[in-house]
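Dock zinc ion; give full complex structure.
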Amino acid sequence: MPATNCSRFPNINAANGSAPACLNRSSESPFALQAFRSFASQLRRPFTSILAQFGASPSIVSDRLDYPPVSALRRTEVPSPPVNLALVDSEELIREILVRIGEDPDREGLQRTPARIVRSWEEIYGGYEQRAEEILVTQFCAGKYDEMVLLRDVEFYSTCEHHLLPFYGKAHIAYLPKNKIVGLSKLARLLDMHARRLQLQERLTQEVATDLQTILQPRGVAVMIEGKHQCMCCRGVRKKEGTMVTSCLLGAFKENLATRSEFLTLTKS
Ligand SMILES: [Zn+2]
């Protein structure tokens, strides 16, 4: 991001440790620059003694006078009292985000946006309220059936925990029953539960497989997920064609090559 607007993103400029672009010497007249250097020179002496009282090293005060010692000022500024964000209204937090990205949260199109976003959290992040044991609580006797059960091409929508942007795609979930089976919709619900949390695709894949293995205790579990990540499409490298494929194989799927091959064949057919 070009650092051209200091008042809008003051913290970003300071965090980079560089002089704000608004203090760029090239834009200053020689007279103004000389006056500023003189002022900074006078300021530096008492500032150093104040630092000494607090036991700070005077060396953090820059000797360079071509711009104010931003890092030194930042280290010694009085911290504002901590805000208990748990007490701040969620819609107020969204309004603040709208302001930070340069918007007017009071314009007509945005007035109800904070409320809509907070309401959507209940669905998008509803997985935190669920437990895998409750989803898979109803199990049926498998009888003599001991071949693979596969739920293929089931869609999911999740949110990348690194950028809070969506990733979505399809999953293939398979298991080899030992004594018990579960309704196919329960496999989809298990996937949804984990997808409706902040996720990494790798962890989403593992969590679905591990829960199914732990709770149903089949002879093996295989989960493969193919996902498209918005954080790769609309930012960063901006490639929209790439698909990420992850898999987790447990029990017989990991140990038996024929079982693994059958799973891979069935997911592609
Ligand atoms: Zn991401």
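Observed: The first strand starts at residue 140 and ends at 141.
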